[in-house]
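The step that takes the researchers longest sounds almost clerical: writing a folded protein down as plain text. Below is the pair of lines this work produces for a single protein:

——
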Amino acid sequence: MSTINMQSDQELPAIGLEWLDLTGEPVNFSSGHTFTLKFVNATTLATTATKTTLITGAATAPNITIDFATGELAAIASTTNGTLYNLHLVAKRTSDGKDRPYRPGAPFQIRLYTAPT
């Protein structure tokens, strides 16, 4: 996965992910899961924000969609040159509360730029 570049005043496009199981098939997230996304500053390693809403699952790819509410990214620290965040996504199975972390082959990151005024 490459780094996603977004501005702090941006809501679209939503981020679509293909989360595969060990056999290479998309994990069925159409029901029975909740999702948590943490924004971890790549320099300080501090968790800056945690998102639990507007993350939806599906049975087929892209089987995860991360959407942003108006002003949501503006609440996360950004800079003119971009602030890099490692994104940690976890699916929690509601039947037993077990966590399944998203581990793509490359870091899942977002570079957040301050919107022009």
Q: What stands out?
A: The CA atoms of residues 25 and 38 lie 25 Å apart. Residues 4-113 form a domain with the Immunoglobulin-like fold (CATH 2.60.40). The two ends are 30 Å apart (CA to CA).
